[in-house]
């Protein structure tokens, strides 16, 4: 049996799937260590996984200064990439040292897209094989655009492929000086070439396992056999016991809608709260609001609205009539599995991409973009999700398909396949 280190970074939704993957590996007799931000340590250890800290506090980044502006970048890929650089640049030295320490003694490293920039060099320094474990499609394809350049218009094969090349290269070009300085000064490694390691990895067909649903985004026909899409990595909590107020609220009337935007509040959370409450009133629905909601107190709410600090989506969503959310990959998949129609209000990053995919799948109205976000527009989308019977039937059908996928089991099988090949498979990148 092997010892594997999973390296990831980001908000709660970026961490949770890797807990599920780690548990899947441990169920097969391996030892799994999750290396990420310290604020998630107790949560990860509570599942019996090993934990190793990596520099960074994404929650603070989202809520302060440039972080709030970053959340407002919406569908602008250039603004998103600039915000990403401001977030990651100051962390790279310490995050690399932390990741190197976390991976010591491992047999293999798995890493997310955000963690690539430190985990790749750490694996190279330690001479360890790795599997890229992504929640978003990273490799270029002609079938859809890059997740940071989503578009409603059909740009065609050349446009789609170009967005992947341009997006990835813009990130790499900005980070290359600091990453090569770290490789030289901290790791005693050769600097990476102008195009980075990506062409070499792509040509050598090094494995990538994707933690998203092939029902939502099928594997492109122009991807190699080393790129896998087994399904999303769901983390279920069978120990959850809902509070009495939630049980009573659900029993008191028709199924409510869910409204929650995770850590996404933008620069004006009070406005977001007002819009949500007015949209609920206009739509005539009962609703469950999840998370902080700009300091909203229970006494501020009408009787048809319940505010909760938290509840597992896997338990809550099947009990809702529709799901209104920000388009994060984890929330999107939980809503899909629940078989409920969705209304997606994307903020930034990959959220507009998933919002477009959900709409294209036929389980949601068109995304409610930030520049279009009004109570009237949101209420109209909610009413459509509730009343459109074809959409509701489609959501149930998709939910059954997504629920039948075996994302964790498939990913574990792929990891074990490459473990069995030994380090020789990866000789090419260790120069």
Describe what you observe in this structure.
With 431 residues, the protein is of the alpha/beta class. The chain folds into two domains: 3-232 and 406-429, Glycogen Phosphorylase B (Rossmann fold), CATH 3.40.50.2000; 244-404, Rossmann fold (3-Layer(aba) Sandwich). It contains 17 helices and twelve strands. It has helices spanning 12-27, 41-45, 58-63, 66-71, 77-88, 92-103, 116-126, 156-185, 198-204, 244-251, 269-283, 313-316, 329-338, 351-360, 375-387, 389-404, 407-421; strands spanning 3-7, 31-36, 50-53, 108-111, 130-134, 208-210, 227-228, 257-259, 287-290, 305-308, 322-325, 342-344. The strands form two sheets. Strands 3-2-1-4-5-6-7 form a seven-stranded parallel sheet, sandwiched between helices. The mean pLDDT is 88.
CATH H-level superfamily of the largest domain: Glycogen Phosphorylase B
Helicity range: 40-55%
Point out poorly predicted stretches.
Answer: none
Elements, N to C (H/E): EHEHEHHHHEHEHHEEHEHEEHEHEHHHH
> Averaged pLDDT, please?
88
Strand order of the largest sheet: 3-2-1-4-5-6-7
Radius of gyration: 21 Å
Straight-line distance between termini:
28 Å
The geometry reads as: globular
In DSSP terms, counting alpha (H) and pi (I) runs of 4 or more, how many helices? 17
- What is the CATH third-level topology name of the largest domain? Rossmann fold
Q: Do you know the CATH architecture of the largest domain?
A: 3-Layer(aba) Sandwich
Could you state the oligomeric state of the chains shown?
A: single chain
How many extended strands?
A: 12
Q: How many domains make up the coordinates?
A: 2
**Main sheet: strands, sense, barrel:** 7 strands, parallel
| Category from helices, strands and their pairing | alpha/beta
Specify the CATH class of the largest domain.
Alpha Beta
Name the beta content range.
Answer: 5-15%
């Amino acid at each position: 049996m092997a010892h594997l280190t999973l390296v990831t970074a980001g908000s709660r939704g970026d961490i949770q799937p890797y807990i599920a993957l780690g548990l899947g590996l441990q169920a097969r007799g391996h030892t799994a260590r999750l290396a990420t931000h310290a604020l998630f340590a107790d949560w990860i250890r509570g599942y019996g996984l090993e934990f190793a800290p990596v520099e960074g506090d994404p929650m603070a980044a989202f809520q302060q200064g440039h972080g709030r502006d970053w959340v407002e970048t919406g569908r602008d890929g250039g603004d998103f990439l600039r915000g990403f650089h401001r977030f990651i640049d100051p962390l790279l030295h310490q995050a690399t040292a932390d990741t190197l320490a976390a991976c010591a003694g491992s047999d293999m490293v798995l890493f997310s897209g955000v963690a690539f920039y430190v985990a790749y060099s750490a694996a190279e320094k330690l001479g360890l094989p790795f599997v890229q474990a992504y929640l978003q499609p990273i490799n270029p394809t002609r079938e859809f655009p890059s997740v940071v350049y989503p578009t409603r218009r059909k740009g065609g094969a050349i446009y789609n492929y170009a967005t992947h090349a341009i997006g990835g290269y813009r990130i790499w070009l900005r980070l290359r000086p600091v990453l090569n300085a770290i490789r030289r000064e901290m790791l005693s490694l050769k600097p990476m070439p102008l195009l980075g390691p990506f062409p070499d990895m792509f040509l050598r067909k090094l494995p990538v396992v994707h933690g998203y649903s092939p029902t939502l985004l099928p594997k492109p026909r122009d991807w190699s056999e080393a790129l896998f899409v087994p399904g999303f990595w769901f983390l279920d909590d069978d120990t959850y016991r809902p509070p009495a107020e939630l049980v009573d609220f659900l029993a008191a009337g028709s199924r409510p809608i869910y409204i929650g935007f995770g850590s996404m509040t933008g620069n004006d959370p009070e406005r977001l709260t007002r819009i949500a409450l007015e949209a609920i009133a206009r739509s005539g629905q009962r609703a469950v609001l999840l998370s902080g909601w700009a300091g909203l107190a229970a006494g501020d709410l009408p009787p048809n609205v319940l505010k909760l600090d938290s509840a597992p989506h896997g338990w809550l969503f099947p009990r809702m009539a529709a799901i209104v959310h920000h388009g994060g990959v984890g929330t999107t998949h939980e809503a899909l599995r629940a078989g409920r129609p969705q209304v997606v209000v994307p903020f930034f990053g990959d959220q507009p991409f998933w919002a477009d995919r959900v709409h294209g799948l036929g389980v949601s109205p068109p995304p409610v973009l930030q520049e279009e976000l009004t109570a009237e527009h949101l209420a109209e989308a909610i009413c459509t999700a509730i009343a459109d019977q074809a959409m509701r039937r489609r959501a149930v059908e998709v939910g059954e398909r997504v629920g039948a996928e075996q994302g964790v089991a498939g990913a574990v099988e792929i990891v074990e396949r490459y473990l069995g090949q030994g380090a020789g498979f990866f000789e090419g990148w260790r120069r």
